[in-house]
Design brief:
heterodimer, A: 942 residues, alpha+beta, Rossmann fold, Dna Ligase, domain 1, D-amino Acid Aminotransferase, Chain A, domain 1, seven-stranded antiparallel β-sheet, 32 helices, B: 389 residues, alpha/beta, Glucose Oxidase, domain 1, 2 domains, ten-stranded mixed β-sheet, seven-stranded mixed barrel, 11 helices, 19 strands
C-alpha cells in the first residue's frame, strides 16, 4: 500500500528531558521520524520540552512547540493545530503514556485525530503486568511464574506460593524499571515491596519468580500494515537476568544460540507482536533462557522504538525509526528500499559480519552513598557502542570508548588485589567484564567464573583469550614483536597504550605507534552494510579493524573532522551532540566534506545520513588519530564535543593537525588556572582569591590563606566532579583525600566561595575581532549550586544595567584576549556589586542549545561558520543575530533522584541533574519562575 | 611468528592456506581435520545454523565460507544434522570457536569436523574474500594444511573441476528407497537429489507417510508405492546436466498426482515444463532473503542456497505463472504450473537454518493433494467443481 493521502498533518510527541531510563535515543528516533515524514510531504508538528534536542530544531519539523509534556499542553496544541494524526511511538514511554491518557479520555476521537504507529488499546496491555501475563498465557508463550500484589501482605503470600525468595518486585506502569528490585533476604522484603508499591502510579507490584542468572536476549522487530514482520537484530546480554537491560553489557548479534533455538524465539516474538494489535511500526521483545534446561520465557514487549532500537539501528545500519515512521503512514516494507545498499529491499533481515558491544556508562561517583549493585532498575546515564570484527576486539574498543581512564579491558595499570576482585564479582557491578578479566589473569578458571557470575562460558572464554594474548605480549620487548603477532594483537583490540604497558621494556604509546606503523600494521576501515558484503553498499558508515583491505575511500574534497562527545554522562550529554550536529550541517553548507567520529549509539550525530562520512569509533586518542591520519582532513573541530573532544586538542596540535577555531594553546590558557588568573590580572578583571595544592598540607595552608567557605576541586574535570565547599580546614583535608581516591595525582584548586553571590552564565561567539554575546543567563539559585543544576533565566531578571554592562565588557575582553574563534562560555559571580570571573571555557557549553532555542538564533551553526572563516559582521548585517525572545526563557534542571532512593537530595558544586526543560514565560509571576525562586536556597549543602 | 599457547584448552595453531583459482592465497590456522580439499568457494550470510549448512547436501563439494566471524560458538549436535555427514568440501571462517557453550551441544565443532574428516581454515579475512568473489564471481579453491606451497595450491585450485555442467545428485542421493515416516496422512514420495532432513521432518510433522527414493528411480518404481504426492527435492549441481530427472518430472506431471519441488527440484520441474534455467553470477546463500508471494502480497524472509535460477524471460502463462519473487533482485522464487497440479519454489521453506515464514508451503502442497483426493473420491463433486470454475 502506498503512503496515505488522507493524512496531511502529523503530530509527533517527544520524550521530554533526559532522565535515567529515557535518554537521547529518542532525539535520534524523533528527528529521524520527523525528517522522513517531511520528506514524504507531510506537515510535521512536534512537541517536546527538551531544548537540547535536534528534534526541536527548526530544521527538523514544520512547527515546533517547546512546551511541557502534559495532557493539557498537548490538548491545547491539538486544538490550535488540528493535526490529522499523532505518532506517539518515537518519544519513549512518556509519549506513549500521554497518548494513552488522552485516548482514555476520548480526546483523540473527539478531535478526529488518528493514533498511528501503535495500537492504542494495546499500550495498556504491555504495561499492565497482569494483562500482559494473561495474554501471553492465552497465546501459549511461557513466562516466569508471578502474581500481582496490591499490598505487602499479598506480596508475602505470593512469595510463599512461588517457593520463597529470591523474588523480583516489579511495579506496574513505571519507566526504566523504577522502583523495581530483587529481594534476596527476608529482612529487606518489606522495604523493597513497599517502595515498589509507592513507585507504581496505581500502587501495584508484580511479585515474580526470580530468573536470576538466566541468559537474556532481545529482538527488534518491524511490522507493516500487511502484517509482514522482520527482525532487525538479536541482542544477547552478557550480564544475565537480574540486571536491567539498559545497565547490561550487550552484544549484537546473539552469540550462543543455535538456529533452532533462535527461530523458536523469533516465532515467539512475532506471535507476541501480533497479539498486541494490528499496528504498523517497531517493537522490542525480551526473552530469557534457563541455561541448564534451555527453557525459554518471555520477559516483556515494548510496542515502540526504544533504547535498544537505537542500538539496533547503529549496530546493523538499518534505520529503524525512519522505516517505522514510513510504515506508520501506510507504506509496506516491500515498497521501501534499503537505504544502505540503495538497490535491495528494506524488507529483509540484516546480516552482519562483525560484532557489536554496548557498555553502559554510569555516574555513581556523583551520588554519595549510592548502591552501585546493578539490579532491575536502570542506573546508567549513557552508553557506548563499539564495532569490531570479533567480540574481543569490540569489547576492548567499547572500553576505550567509555572515557573513564581505561585504554581497553584492563592491561593498562597495576592489578587490583585478589580480595577486591572476588568481592566485586559476587554481585553484578558495572565493571564485571573487567573483573572477569582480572580474575582470569590471576588464574581463576572459566568454570569457576561461570558459576559465580552466571555469564555464559563463551564470553568468558573470549575474555580468557585476551588474557592469553596479554601474556604473550608480556614475554616480549616492543621491538621483538613481529608484524604477524602485532597484527594479531591489534585484531584483539589492544590499544598502543596497553601494548606499551604490557611489553617488557619501558616504552611510550607513541613509540608503540611509530613501531607498529613501521611494521605496516595500520587499521583498515570496513563498511557497515546490512548484508555482510553480499551486495555493494552506498552508505559511508565505517568502523576500524585490522583486516586486509580498507573500504573507505578518501575523497579529493576539503574535509573536516568533527569530534563527538562520547557517552552521555552527567555534565556532558545531549547538549554537545546538538552542537556537533550543527557543526556538521554548517560545514556541509560551506561546501566541506564532513567526517564525524563518535561512539554513542543514542545520538543524532551517529546517524549515518547526518555527516558525509561516519566513523563509529571511540573518541579515544589512538582511534581518532588513526582516522585523522587516514583522512588527512583540512582541519578538526574539537569545540563541540565537550571535554571529551577538547582533551584531544593538545595531542592533535602536537601532531601538526589543524584545529579549527580557537588554538590549542589558547584553550590551555583558559583551562590552566594559573595562566588564566594571570591573564585576568593583566586585564584587570576580578576573580576570587585562589590557591593550588598537590598535598593535603599545601591545600590546608592555601585555604587558611584564602579564607572560608572555600571551593575545593580537582583541575580539568567535567560537571564539577569531586567539587565541594569546605568551611574549615578539617573539611578541606577530607575533601582533598576524597578527590584523590577518585582521581589520584590530580592537582587541587581552592577558590574562595562567594557566598550568596548571583551567578551568571554567558554564551558568546568570537571571530577573533568581534565578540557577539548570544545569551546571558542569571541563575535563580545562589552561587555554589552547579550551573547545570541551576534554574537559569534568560535574560537576567535582577541585575542592574550597569552590572550587565560590566559583564559584557569582561566577556569581550576575555574572548579577545583568549583569541577565541568560535564559541566561549563564561561563568561569573556578582557579589557586593563586584563582578568576579569564575571560569571561561572556549568551547560549546551545555547552555548553547537552550540559548539557541530561547532566542531562535542558531548559535552553533554560526560559531562553526566563524571557525571556518566567516565574520560575525556578516551575520549581523543579514539580521541573523536578532533574538526573537519575548519575555523570559527558563531552563529548568531535571533530576533522576527516584533512581537513587538511598541518596539524599542535595545540591552543590558537583552537577547531578540528568536533563533539562525549557519554559517561556511573560512575567516573573509565572510559577515556572516563582516556584524555584522560593526554593532557591533549599538544597544547597556542599 | 606463531606462538604455541600454554593453555591446554587452546588448540595448537597449525598453519593452513586457502588458494583461489585466480591466484589469491591467504594464510590462516587449520581447524578440524588436517588435510587438503577443494571446491567452489561460496559464502553464506546466516549468522547461526552453521552445522545445518555444513550438512546440507545442496552444498555438496562446495567450499563454504561463513560471513559471520565467530563460528563454532554453540558446538555441534545431532539435531542440527541435515544429512548423515557434512556435505561441504571445507569450511572457511574468520574466527573459529574451539570453546563452545550451549546445553544442547554434544561436542565442539572442531571435534565434529575431525570425526568426519572435514577440513577448515580460520583466521582469514572472510569479508575481503566475499567482496572478491562478489566482483569476480564464484571460483574454485583449495584448503590445505599439508601443502603450503602457494604455486602448487593455486594450480590445484585451477585444476579442480568446475561446477558448471556437473550432475552431483547421484553423489548424495539415497542408495535405496527407505521409509522416513509412516503416518495417517497422505503418502509423499520424495525424489532424493540430496534432500535436507528438515524437509522430510516437515512432511512427517504433518502426519504424512514419507518414502525416499534414490534420484535414479524410474517413475514406475515410485508409482508402485501409490503416492498421493510427489516431491522433487533440493540438491547440488547443474539441473541442465540431469536430462533423466527432467524426463521423470515430465512423466510425473502426466500422472495428475500433485507435485512440489524445492530448489534443484524446482529447477528440474521448471525445465521439464519448458522454462529455462541459467547460472547466476553470484548465487543466493543466506537466511535473510526477502521473497514476496505475489498472490497474497505477503513477504517471507527465506533461506536460500542456489547458484542457478529460472529465467524470468522464459515464463509463459501457458506453462507457469509466477507466484514468488525475490525483492532484492526480482529473480524468480516460485511458480505454479499451468498444465498440471504442481508448484515449486527456488528457496527453502523448510528453513533450517533460517526463519520459519514459509512453512505454509508444505500445507499448500497437502491442500493440493486433498483437493485431488476429494475429486478422486467423489467424481460427482469434482465435476461440479469443474463446472463452477
Amino acid at each position: 500500500m502506498p503512503k496515505r493521502t488522507d493524512i496531511k498533518k502529523i503530530l509527533l510527541i517527544g520524550s521530554g528531558p533526559i532522565i535515567i531510563g529515557q535518554a537521547c535515543e529518542f532525539d535520534y528516533s524523533g528527528s529521524q521520524a520527523a525528517r522522513s515524514l517531511r520528506a514524504e510531504g507531510y506537515e510535521v508538528i512536534l512537541v517536546n520540552s527538551n531544548p537540547a534536542t535536534i528534534m526541536t530544531d527548526p530544521i527538523t519539523a514544520d512547527k515546533i512547540f517547546l512546551r511541557e509534556l502534559t495532557p493539557e499542553s498537548i490538548m491545547s496544541i491539538v486544538e490550535e493545530e488540528r493535526p490529522d494524526a499523532v505518532l506517539p511511538t518515537m518519544g519513549g514511554q512518556t509519549a506513549l503514556n500521554l497518548a494513552d491518557k488522552l485516548h482514555q479520555t476520548g480526546f483523540w476521537e473527539k478531535m478526529g485525530v488518528e493514533v498511528i504507529g501503535v495500537d492504542i488499546d494495546a499500550i495498556h496491555i504491555t504495561e499492565d503486568r497482569q494483562k500482559f501475563r494473561d495474554l501471553m498465557a492465552e497465546i501459549g508463550i511461557d513466562q516466569v511464574e508471578s502474581r500481582v500484589a496490591k499490598s505487602l501482605l499479598e506480596a508475602k503470600e505470593i512469595t510463599q506460593e512461588l517457593g520463597g525468595i529470591p523474588v523480583v518486585i516489579r511495579p506496574s506502569f513505571t519507566l526504566g524499571g523504577s522502583g523495581g528490585s530483587i529481594v534476596w533476604s527476608m529482612d529487606e522484603f518489606d522495604r523493597k515491596v513497599t517502595r515498589g508499591l509507592e513507585c507504581s502510579p496505581i500502587h501495584e507490584v508484580l511479585v515474580e519468580e526470580c530468573a536470576f542468572g538466566w541468559k537474556e536476549f532481545e529482538l527488534e522487530l518491524l511490522r507493516d500494515s500487511k502484517d509482514n514482520v522482520i527482525i532487525i537484530c538479536s541482542i544477547e546480554n552478557i550480564d544475565p537476568m537480574g540486571v536491567h537491560t539498559g545497565d547490561s553489557v550487550t552484544v549484537v548479534p546473539a552469540q550462543t544460540l543455535t538456529d533452532k533455538q533462535f527461530q523458536i524465539m523469533r516465532n515467539a516474538a512475532i506471535k507476541m507482536m501480533r497479539s498486541i494489535g494490528t499496528f504498523a511500526g517497531g517493537c522490542n521483545v525480551q526473552f530469557a533462557i534457563e541455561p541448564a534446561t534451555g527453557r525459554m520465557i518471555a520477559i516483556e514487549i515494548n510496542p515502540r522504538v526504544s533504547r535498544s532500537s537505537a542500538l539496533a539501528s547503529k549496530a546493523t545500519g538499518y534505520p529503524i525509526a525512519k522505516v517505522a515512521a514510513k510504515l506508520a503512514i501506510g507504506y509496506t516494507l516491500d515498497e521501501l528500499t534499503n537505504d544502505v545498499t540503495g538497490t535491495t529491499s528494506a524488507c529483509f533481515e540484516p546480516a552482519i559480519d562483525y560484532v557489536v558491544t554496548k557498555i553502559p556508562r554510569f555516574n555513581f561517583e556523583k551520588f554519595e552513598g549510592v548502591d552501585e549493585i546493578l539490579t532491575t532498575q536502570m542506573k546508567a546515564v549513557g552508553e557506548v557502542m563499539a564495532i569490531g570484527r570479533t567480540f574481543p576486539e569490540s569489547l576492548q574498543k567499547a572500553w576505550q570508548s567509555l572515557e573513564n581512564g581505561y585504554s581497553g579491558l584492563g592491561a593498562d595499570r597495576d592489578e587490583i588485589p585478589r580480595k577486591e576482585i572476588r568481592e566485586r564479582l559476587k554481585k553484578p557491578y558495572w565493571d564485571q567484564t573487567l573483573q572477569i578479566r582480572n580474575a582470569l589473569k590471576l588464574g581463576a578458571s572459566v568454570e569457576e567464573l561461570a558459576d559465580i557470575t552466571k555469564v555464559d562460558p563463551w564470553f568468558l572464554n573470549q575474555i580468557h583469550k585476551l588474557v592469553h594474548v596479554e601474556d604473550e605480549i608480556r614475554a616480549l620487548s616492543l621491538y621483538q614483536i613481529e608484524d604477524v603477532f602485532m597484527r594479531r594483537v591489534k585484531q584483539h583490540g589492544f590499544s598502543d597504550d596497553q601494548i606499551a604497558y604490557l611489553v617488557m621494556d619501558d616504552v611510550t604509546s607513541a613509540e608503540v605507534r611509530a613501531y607498529r606503523k613501521s611494521l605496516g600494521v595500520v587499521p583498515s576501515y570496513l563498511l557497515v552494510d546490512t548484508c555482510a558484503g553480499e551486495f555493494p553498499a552506498q552508505t559511508p558508515y565505517f568502523y576500524s579493524s585490522y583486516e586486509s583491505e580498507t573500504e573507505s575511500e578518501v575523497s579529493d574534497r576539503k574535509s573536516i573532522v568533527i569530534l563527538g562527545s562520547g557517552p552521555n554522562r552527567i555534565g556532558q550529554g545531549i547538549e554537545f551532540d546538538y552542537s556537533c550536529v550543527h557543526a556538521v550541517l554548517a560545514s556541509k553548507k560551506l561546501g566541506y566534506e564532513t567526517i564525524m567520529i563518535n561512539c554513542n549509539p543514542e545520538t543524532v550525530s551517529t546517524d549515518f545520513d547526518v555527516a558525509d562520512k561516519l566513523y563509529f569509533e571511540p573518541v579515544f586518542w589512538e582511534r581518532v588519530f588513526d582516522v585523522v591520519e587516514y583522512e588527512k582532513p583540512y582541519g578538526v573541530i574539537v569545540q563541540m564535543g565537550g571535554q571529551t573532544a577538547l582533551k584531544l586538542s593538545q595531542n592533535l596540535d602536537q601532531e601538526g593537525v589543524r584545529i579549527l577555531g580557537t588554538s590549542a594553546d589558547d584553550m590551555d590558557l583558559a583551562e590552566d588556572r594559573g595562566r588564566f588568573s594571570d591573564m585576568l590580572k593583566e586585564l584587570d578583571i576580578p576573580y576570587p582569591p585562589y590557591g593550588k595544592a598537590s598535598s593535603v598540607e599545601e591545600a590546608v595552608a592555601a585555604a587558611e590563606h584564602v579564607g572560608y567557605p572555600i571551593l575545593v576541586r580537582p583541575s580539568y574535570v567535567l560537571g564539577g566532579q569531586g567539587m565541594r565547599i569546605a568551611i574549615n580546614k578539617e573539611e578541606v583535608a577530607r575533601y582533598v583525600n576524597d578527590i584523590w581516591k577518585l582521581m589520584p595525582d590530580n592537582k587541587i584548586l581552592l577558590d574562595l566561595f562567594l557566598e550568596n553571590g548571583i551567578e551568571m552564565d554567558i554564551d558568546a561567539v568570537c571571530d577573533g575581532e568581534e565578540v557577539w554575546i548570544a545569551g546571558m543567563m542569571q541563575h535563580i539559585e545562589p552561587a555554589g549550586v552547579h550551573s547545570g543544576d541551576s534554574t537559569a533565566v534568560l535574560p537576567p531578571f535582577s541585575v542592574s544595567d550597569e552590572i550587565l554592562h560590566t559583564v559584557s565588557r569582561f566577556v569581550k575582553k576575555i574572548a579577545l584576549r583568549l583569541r577565541v574563534v568560535g564559541l566561549v562560555n563564561l561563568q561569573m559571580v556578582i557579589k557586593d556589586e563586584t563582578v568576579y570571573v569564575i571560569e571561561a571555557n572556549p568551547r560549546a557549553s551545555r547552555t548553547v542549545p537552550f540559548v539557541a532555542k530561547a532566542t531562535g538564533v542558531p548559535i552553533s551553526d554560526i560559531a562553526t561558520q566563524v571557525m571556518l572563516g566567516k565574520k560575525i559582521a556578516e551575520f549581523r548585517e543579514r539580521g541573523e543575530l536578532e533574538s526573537s525572545l519575548k519575555g523570559y526563557a527558563i531552563k529548568e534542571p531535571v533530576f533522576s533522584w527516584d533512581k537513587f532512593p538511598e541518596v539524599p537530595k542535595e545540591l552543590g558544586p558537583e552537577m547531578k541533574s540528568t536533563g533539562e526543560t525549557i519554559a517561556f514565560i511573560d512575567e516573573l509571576t509565572d510559577a515556572h519562575f516563582s516556584r524555584p525562586y522560593e526554593m532557591r536556597n533549599l538544597y544547597l549543602s556542599k | 611468528m606463531q606462538q604455541t599457547l600454554s593453555n591446554s584448552s587452546e588448540k595448537r595453531l597449525r598453519p593452513c592456506k586457502l588458494a583461489l583459482a585466480d591466484g589469491t592465497v591467504v594464510v590462516g590456522e587449520a581447524v578440524g581435520h588436517l588435510g587438503e580439499a577443494g571446491g567452489e568457494l561460496c559464502f553464506n550470510t546466516s549468522m547461526m545454523g552453521y552445522q545445518e549448512i555444513l550438512t546440507d547436501p545442496s552444498y555438496y563439494g562446495q567450499m563454504m565460507m561463513m560471513t559471520y566471524p565467530h563460528i563454532g560458538n554453540y558446538g555441534a549436535m545431532d539435531i542440527d544434522m541435515e544429512a548423515t555427514r557434512p556435505m561441504v568440501a571445507g569450511l572457511v571462517v574468520r574466527q573459529f570457536s574451539h570453546q563452545y557453550s550451549n546445553q544442547a551441544a554434544d561436542e565442539s565443532l572442531d571435534s565434529f569436523m575431525n570425526r568426519f574428516n572435514l577440513v577448515g581454515i580460520s583466521g582469514v579475512d572472510t569479508r575481503a574474500l566475499v567482496r572478491h568473489i562478489r566482483s569476480q564471481g564464484a571460483m574454485n579453491s583449495v584448503i590445505s594444511s599439508v601443502d603450503l606451497d602457494n604455486e602448487s595450491l593455486v594450480s590445484k585450485a585451477r585444476e579442480w573441476p568446475s561446477m558448471e555442467g556437473l550432475e552431483l545428485a547421484s553423489k548424495v542421493t539415497a542408495e535405496k528407497p527407505y521409509d522416513f515416516a509412516t503416518g495417517e496422512g497422505p503418502r509423499i514420495a520424495v525424489y532424493d537429489f540430496g534432500v535436507k532432513k528438515n524437509i522430510l521432518h516437515s512432511f512427517q510433522k504433518r502426519g504424512c507417510s514419507v518414502r525416499v527414493f534414490p534420484a535414479a528411480t524410474a517413475l514406475e518404481g515410485v508409482l508402485s508405492w501409490n503416492p498421493d504426492g510427489i516431491f522433487f527435492s533440493n540438491g547440488p549441481g547443474d539441473p541442465r546436466a540431469m536430462p533423466d530427472s527432467i524426463a521423470v518430472c515430465r512423466s510425473a506431471f502426466d500422472t495428475g498426482i500433485p507435485v512440489f519441488g524445492i530448489c534443484l527440484g524446482h529447477q528440474l520441474m521448471s525445465l521439464a515444463a519448458g522454462l529455462k534455467v541459467f547460472k547466476m553470477f553470484v548465487g543466493h546463500r543466506g537466511a535473510n532473503q526477502p521473497v514476496k508471494n505475489v498472490i497474497t502480497g505477503r513477504v517471507e524472509i527465506s533461506t536460500q542456497n542456489h547458484g542457478f535460477t529460472v529465467d524470468p524471460e522464459s515464463l509463459d502463462p501457458k506453462k507457469a505463472t509466477l507466484t514468488h519473487i525475490n525483492l532484492n533482485d526480482q529473480s524468480v522464487e516460485g511458480v505454479r504450473f499451468t498444465q498440471f497440479k504442481g508448484f515449486s519454489v527456488q528457496y527453502h521453506p523448510e528453513a533450517s537454518p533460517g526463519p520459519h515464514d514459509s512453512h505454509y508451503l508444505f500445507d499448500e502442497f497437502l491442500k493440493d493433494i486433498e483437493q485431488t483426493e476429494s475429486m478422486k473420491v467423489s467424481p460427482a463433486d469434482a465435476s461440479e467443481l469443474q463446472a463452477v470454475s
